[in-house]
Amino acid sequence: MKIGILGSGRMGGNLGTMFARVGHNVVFSYSRSAEKLARLARAAGANARWGNPREATQDADLVLLAVHWLNVDDVLALAGSTAGKTVMSCCNPLDADDTRLTIGHTSSGAEVLANKIPDSRVVAAFQTVPSEVLMSVFENRRNSPRPSLIFCGNDSSSKSVASALITEVGFDPIDAGKLETARYIEPFGMLAGVLAYETEQGPDWAYRFGRLNRLVG
Amino acid sequence: MKIGILGSGRMGGNLGTMFARVGHNVVFSYSRSAEKLARLARAAGANARWGNPREATQDADLVLLAVHWLNVDDVLALAGSTAGKTVMSCCNPLDADDTRLTIGHTSSGAEVLANKIPDSRVVAAFQTVPSEVLMSVFENRRNSPRPSLIFCGNDSSSKSVASALITEVGFDPIDAGKLETARYIEPFGMLAGVLAYETEQGPDWAYRFGRLNRLVG
């Protein structure tokens, strides 16, 4: 699969690297520093390149949106059309201080995004785990049980693609249903942040969801 | 410990029964049916009684608030003063249809409750697991690993009490910090509901939070 990465910070950088390592063709984009993009692509191996958002998007089968919420309009304008593509978003709609969700309960960042690009298929995923844990999950992907990763969306074929990607990078995908569930998933992402960064749980934090008999010994 | 149960539906009924079985003195209250309260108390064994909300509250060391959000004012009026007591709330601030949170992001049900009873010490707990799984968790409490249960509050001694109770009934307590975190815990409770009741996960659903190396094999 060809995957365009919009936003190459810790989330986009780690996820893009993982996608490249399992064999997808990845294009990193949207960093203030071209040197950083080049370094990311080099470190991610032969399947990774870098470019501008339009280059990352135009041939992509799937676009990962991993920018700060305040930069969504800017990166979408630079990316050009995403019509018909799956857009996987790990954005939480945070304010400039990263302290509060700016949308919720009656809507969500994912739903607002879907309204901005109505001809694309939006999947919300990866906003519920700290970026620090991603690479450890990837490196432990042969172990079991795996940590869970919750996602949601309205288009079943996009969700199949998302689910397969989530599995490839080492998580157990949990389908939470329609995109509207992002109203709860995004606050859960905030809760994950509180636990990872403000408690003794620490940023190497993950979660498992499931039937009790699969969680306990 | 003496524990008053305000609200004896599935959450309050199960939790009260579990508290009684581990040795606490429990008083069930606030059901439309006195017969139901009597049956609950009988089934919970020698440590359980039933009464009205005032009787459940007046001698209690800890009060469990397990009513529908729309009944909070009513049950608090019936209960009388909770000054100085720990009030453990598992209420999510749902609307009449149980479909939406009515408070959030800039506040939470737990914070609104704390403002209603400013001389009490509010702990938010048990709103993140389906009532159906409680008894199974209790019965499996000798097994490990245990499912997690997230809680928060502003008073450290009340939180110690809450943490001990959560442990006694079979969960691994996770302290999410101050009461304000209920803004994220309550939506996570909604997410738990979506997973338990609207997906193949099923209502025998629980979760584990933690460092990756404690989650994976």
Topology:
Two copies of one chain form a homodimer.
Chain A (H helix, E strand, L loop, with lengths): L1 E5 L3 H12 L3 E5 L4 H11 L3 E3 L2 H6 L3 E4 L6 H8 L6 E4 L19 H8 L4 E5 L5 H9 L8 E6 L2 H13 L3 E4 L6 H17 L6 E7 H4 L2
Parallel strand pairs in A: 1-2, 1-4, 2-3, 4-5, 5-6, 7-8
Antiparallel strand pairs in A: 6-7
Helix pairs in contact in A: 1-2, 1-6
Description:
Two copies of one chain form a homodimer. With 217 residues, the first copy, chain A, is of the alpha/beta class. Chain A has one domain (2-215): Rossmann fold (3-Layer(aba) Sandwich). Chain A is 41% helix and 20% strand. The first copy, chain A, contains nine helices and nine strands. An eight-stranded mixed β-sheet of chain A has the order 3-2-1-4-5-6-7-8, with helices on both faces. The mean pLDDT of chain A is 93. At the A-B interface, helix 6, helix 8, strand 9 and helix 9 of A face helix 6, helix 8, strand 9 and helix 9 of B. Chains A, B: Keywords: Oxidoreductase. Chains A, B: InterPro entries: NAD(P)-bd_dom_sf (IPR036291), P5C_Rdtase_cat_N (IPR028939), STEAP_metalloreductase (IPR051267). Chains A, B: Residues 2-93 form the Pyrroline-5-carboxylate reductase catalytic N-terminal domain. Chains A, B: GO terms for molecular function: oxidoreductase activity.
